[in-house]
Specification:
By secondary structure, the chain is α/β, with parallel strands linked by helices. It contains ten helices and eleven strands.
Length: 397
């Protein structure tokens, strides 16, 4: 699997370079520096949250745990990877990468971040830098840091994935599916929410900090909280249903999978089972609507019509037709979020509302649907999630 994905990387990097070429020319820069980032500290403390690499850096190089590293790119030249490997006995320094993809870079190892300044040579060229820069980098001579026009161009075109990126995301989805199977098994064996979460992490082989987002593991009424991340420790709690929203990562690319299970179909309310079956069918219908040229907003509105139909057919909603329930906002009481989003290096990948690569105009959301994260027409290579939901939330009823 890894060898096959590695073979796709050179073409991916050529695509990333071509995007940079066009963006730099349009915005008037000579080159680009992408900084991986640096872990921060908690307030008044000497340790902090887990490091999360700059997604722009990951677009160039699959190094998720490499603080204070840089990619430097000048159009027409091989990209340079400046890899920070400190001399450190308090923490294990990152290993210098030797995988096949590194052959596409000129690799230089440094021991201190300050050594990168001379290698990047920002003072003699008009270089744009992308990343969250520490204060000591302010004097390095970058012409601009995170210029809006450059970011808008790169964000917009990052929606369409290369074959390399698609392969990474398929592997992330495979890992996520393995985790979901293990989580369901743990649930049926009587594990607590926390223990189900542990079973998931063990199955996918990822630490909690390596997951693309915090797992949602909810028994019973917890599923009515959209981002329920409590992870209860007790086993002796009501557990008639189990909702899991959990993904995995591979080389920085994410998967995002949600499923619902019942403890005992024979003892479950028939209306609930009917609604679950309806949601399964309508999700597949919505997935079939995902095709190049289609307006994603229409998929979202179709989801409301289909969910309204399921509610009316089951008798949960009475006194109006499915069309009326979708038009007058009744469906939104039970489906209070968007149908999905772009997926990639970031779980909620960027530029979902952008009308074009200028960043100056957004495509409006449908009236009354303020939570929709994606309004663009779909293009070949774009990856989206399809997440119809049906919730009974006291606050909204």
């Amino acid at each position: 699997m890894t060898d096959a994905i590695d073979q796709l990387f050179p073409a991916h990097l050529q695509h990333v370079q071509a995007l940079a070429d066009r963006a730099l020319e349009r915005e008037g820069y000579d080159g680009l520096v992408v900084y991986s980032g640096r872990p921060g500290l908690h307030f008044l403390d000497d340790h902090g949250p887990a490091f999360k690499a700059n997604p722009h850096f990951l677009h160039w190089a699959p190094l998720q745990e490499a603080p204070d590293c840089f990619v430097r790119y000048l159009p027409g030249r091989r990209p340079q990877l400046v890899f920070h490997q400190p001399a450190d006995y308090w923490h294990k320094p990152p290993t210098v990468p030797t995988a096949a993809w590194t052959r596409e870079f000129d690799l230089t190892v440094i021991r201190e971040p300050a050594e990168a300044r001379g290698l990047l040579d920002a003072g003699n060229r008009r270089l744009a830098c992308i990343g969250e820069l520490p204060a000591e980098f302010a004097e390095w001579g970058f012409s601009a840091t995170n210029p809006a026009g450059l970011l808008s161009y790169l964000h917009y075109h990052r929606a369409a994935k290369t074959p390399y990126e698609l392969a990474c995301m398929r592997e992330a989805s495979r890992l996520g599916a393995v985790g979901h199977v293990a989580a369901e098994k743990a649930y049926r064996a009587g594990a607590s929410e926390f223990e189900v979460h542990q079973a998931y992490c063990s199955a996918v082989g990822l630490r909690e900090q390596e997951l693309p987002y915090g797992n949602i593991i909810a028994f019973g009424e917890g599923a009515a909280i959209l981002h329920y991340t409590t992870l209860g420790r007790r086993r002796d709690v009501p557990r008639p249903t189990f909702l899991i929203d959990a993904g995995a990562q591979f080389r920085g690319y994410a998967s995002d999978i949600t499923r619902t299970h019942v403890a005992d179909a024979a003892g479950t309310d028939p209306t609930f089972l009917e609604l679950m079956a309806s949601m399964e069918r309508l999700q597949l219908e919505l997935c079939a609507a995902v095709r190049p040229g289609f307006d994603y907003r229409q998929i979202h509105l179709l989801a409301h019509r289909l969910i309204a139909g399921a509610l009316v057919q089951s008798g949960v909603v009475t006194g109006c037709t499915a069309e009326q329930a979708a038009e007058n906002g009744v469906s939104g009481v039970f489906f209070p979020h968007g149908i999905g989003h772009l997926l990639g290096i970031q779980v909620h990948d960027v530029a979902g509302l952008a009308a074009d690569d200028s960043g100056r105009t957004e495509i409006p959301r449908p009236t009354g649907h303020s939570y929709l994260r994606l309004t663009r027409r779909l293009e070949p290579g774009v990856v989206v999630t399809i997440e119809p939901g049906l919730y009974f939330i006291d606050l909204l009823l």
